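Pilot study result, target chain (130 residues):
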Amino acid sequence: MPRPVHFEIHASDVARAQAFYGAAFGWAFEDWSEYAGTPYIGVRTGEEQPGIDGAIMRRQGEAPAPGQPVMGAVLTVGVDDYDTTEAAILKAGGTEALGKHALPGMAWQGYYLDTEGNVFGIHQPDEQAK
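Predicted structure:
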């Protein structure tokens, strides 16, 4: 069965997006612009747990308007501590889109906007969530 192997986050300001994701999640980066022919920053999300790596790239158009429906896929990041991660997101310049809520018997879930107006989620497994 095919699985996602790479993600791309579109950004009007690639450096600002890189700073946001580095501060919010501790991701590591590598400049791949030479290969892509455009500002393109490789993203390493870690090695300890299953997941995928990706990139931050220069947006090829206007940024999403506030409140517009999501166009594309939403990246959800698995976290160990929802509240600590939320604090890091907000401190790094992100904003809440849909706050922390229970997926009963499964997890805590919430959605945020990055500094580029992109929606992303965070997900903390917790069978006791109600």
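One observation from the pilot: Residues 14-25 form the longest helix (12 residues). A full batch analysis is planned for the follow-on phase.
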